[in-house]
Design goal:
homodimer, alpha/beta, Rossmann fold, seven-stranded mixed beta sheet, five-stranded parallel beta sheet, 21 strands, 38% helix, elongated
């Protein structure tokens, strides 16, 4: 068994700092753990029993060695707790803050030393820990009422930042895709992104990995692991802490140096690892790769009923190295003969505000063999766009397995059309630019070797 | 009276191509015109009366000269209609497509010549026309059921593209700001952006102008008018059709050459006109300037309860030339003494997941005099963020009139907190990067002389 299997699928979990009070962090996490597919051991000397579970007075008094211990006690108590956990746990996940990120580098070195001597693997400190809906494992100290969890799916999240893990999980939930595993490793005193990448490369439940990071401790190790993973499944990396202000902020966040971004960036490119430029772009790309598999090619066709939206999509294609190739002359003539004279039969194809939804189908199938990916733009305020467009898009996606993304603007049938299209495995975006960003993650263009 | 006052506040409007059928474009526009603060003359030879209004058989048979005639007949009929309108209308707004944008440049030249000889000013062709909620003027051929209109407000929209006008109006509606005037001038055979800019510069109802364009016919005229306007109120310009593919798309969209974007861009900068990079950024900037007035300075303070969100905001500041200056030492010490030791008192100020909402107030007021603008980030999944934060932000905004933008992540009290904060005149954004883009539009940094 891979070592990280015990972190993501623990049979036994201890919670040091468990509380019966649902308003306290140790109470929130205990409640979340109650649905674990495994046994839970609360640790708190003030209680004999918490929420119906026997409570143990100390980490040292656990009745058997557990796979995972979660530590939710003030930083100063952590060294003592780790010493007690010798022989009692495989992983110790330290939620507590107050280590290197606040300047207490000495305290962090101390817990690393103690854990190493005790043979305990560390996650954190200063982290939210692990989420695995397939094992009903959830160490995040946020109640379900205030943070809805995403459903089960195939996207893994690896985040140095807890806030970003929360935001990514929420975005995945809203995008109607689902999560396989998620981990926030915080200060990375021991467990770091490379080891998680290696695990996920072989994890059959994970099809796509989305990773937020601010710093790496061993650049070569990171790049090797990222390349290993990205050769097996799409890996999207967002590196924050880019500029001077940003890297100072990253340092005070997790206590690690962010390094020179320019060097890091060119190394990522050299290793063929796909980097995204910012958080919004990470979400757009993650949505695309969770719906569809990447495919080779850079030739894009845009089919729109709004000229301006088509122009913006064309501009965004240029930014991502995607080509708006011209239409083959015979297809162009055939479409010109089919369509009203005021439609523009070029790339973008502009079906104008007087479009009927069958026109989209006509254009898509006529052009299916001549492009590598398609952007469909539907401004739904006009009468000719109905729910039938959803059927046409599904039919195209089912018969032509090429990357296809859609921008649907608010209005008209949009609220009913969007879920219909997404159910057919086609990601829908709220702007032309964001739709193209999604497509860029699905096509292998210059600088996108994912 | 300014000439364009007759376009935005017409006392009399003729609709050539009016229809009783609410499914036809001429029927939709007639219905929208029924609430006009003015008189409406339908023109259609097949009816004596439409929707209770007397219908005239031809443009030439209008009983009196009108301020505005809207033409919704096929392109081939337009020259004849314009000839009939001699002496009968001040403006002719040609909704019909099928002119230069589809290659029919000759037909477009013809209508320009006829209109010029007849002393008729043209809007369009190939456009949606005008929206002025203060005059209940609405020439857009989209029914209210499929396109909700924004409320009255202080943002004007000037768009070459009809689709973009719709998207901008919808975004303004969703952002809960409102519109003063909007115009889509399409192929710009006569009326073009510069003339509208000059009108809006003096229009007391308009505080901010958002403009989407793909091409300009007279670069010097455009730049002079844009500078004139932007010295009086914020003008945000999005130029689409940037790359080769994009400018070809722009050409087939409105039949005008998009020109060299690099040259255009440096001219904008030289003239001190604020350009935004894309559609999403235009929306973010427009939201900010519709809520708050721009102010001088580039020193930004970020106050967050999520470290990673703070780092991403810091990165985005760097992209916009905004500085994350350090905290004055005495203030830093005072805050360190106030806050728990695991908070990070730097810039960003990281109040961590254990924040209480009073901490935001504490930090904001301690730092009020030391920065030009503020970004507050609240991840609302944690227990310490409540609706009280809304009160604190309102109090800060009311007493310290400096630019303040907020990123609130979904979860917890977010759905109730967001409207509370926006009601206090503080724009809320769904990501740290977008919040900073909003702030960048409010601060006058290098390259932002708006």
């Amino acid at each position: 068994m891979k070592e990280l299997e015990r972190l993501f699928f623990p049979k036994t979990v201890a919670l040091v700092g468990a509380s019966p009070d649902g308003a306290k962090l140790g109470g929130i996490v205990l409640r979340n753990l109650l649905s674990l597919k495994g046994r839970v051991f609360p640790v708190n000397p003030r209680y004999d029993e918490i929420l119906g579970l026997h409570s143990f007075p100390s980490a040292g008094s656990l009745p058997e060695p557990v796979d995972l211990s979660i530590i939710m006690r003030p930083a100063a108590e952590v060294p003592g707790i780790l010493a007690e956990l010798r022989g009692k746990t495989h992983f110790a996940l330290i939620v507590s803050a107050g280590f290197a990120e606040t300047g207490a580098a000495g305290l962090q070195s101390e817990i690393v030393r103690i854990a190493s001597e005790a043979g305990v693997r560390l996650v954190g400190p200063n982290c939210l820990g692990v989420y695995n809906p397939f094992h009903r494992l959830d160490t995040m100290f946020l109640p379900h009422e205030s943070m809805k969890r995403p459903k089960r799916g195939n996207v893994a999240v690896v985040s140095q930042s807890g806030a970003m893990m929360i935001c990514l999980l929420d975005a995945i939930r809203v995008a109607n895709t689902g999560v396989s595993r998620a981990v926030n490793y915080g200060n990375a005193a021991d467990l770091d992104a490379p080891e998680v990448y290696e695990y996920l490369a072989d994890d059959d439940g994970t099809a796509v990995v989305v990773s937020y990071l601010e710093s790496v401790s061993d650049g070569r190790r990171f790049l090797e692991a990222a390349r290993f993973l990205s050769r097996r499944k799409p890996l999207l990396v967002l590196k924050a802490g880019k500029g001077e202000g940003g890297s100072a902020a990253a340092f005070s966040h997790t206590g690690r140096l962010a390094g020179n971004y320019g060097v890091f960036r060119s190394l990522l490119a050299h290793y063929g690892i796909r980097e995204v430029a910012g958080f919004d772009e990470l979400l757009d790309a993650a949505k695309a790769v969770s719906y569809q598999r990447p495919a080779p090619g850079t030739r894009v066709c845009i089919i729109t009923n709004g000229g301006g939206s088509g122009v913006l999509a064309a501009d965004e294609c240029a930014r991502h190295g995607l080509q708006l190739a011209g239409l083959p002359e015979d297809v162009r003539q055939a479409l010109k003969n089919t369509f009203p004279s005021f439609y523009t039969v070029a790339n973008p194809v502009d079906l104008t505000g007087q479009v009927r939804d069958d026109d989209y189908r006509e254009a898509l199938f006529a052009l299916r063999d001549h492009f590598d990916g398609f952007v469909v733009i539907a401004l739904t305020g006009v009468a000719g766009v109905t729910l039938r467009l959803g059927d046409h898009l599904r039919e195209f996606r089912e018969t032509v397995r090429k990357p296809l993304v859609v921008h649907i603007a608010q209005g008209g049938v949009a609220p009913r059309l969007i879920p219909l299209v997404e159910k057919a495995g086609i990601p829908v975006y709220p702007s032309p630019e964001r739709a193209v960003r999604g497509l860029a993650a699905l096509l292998e263009s210059e600088g996108n070797h994912g």
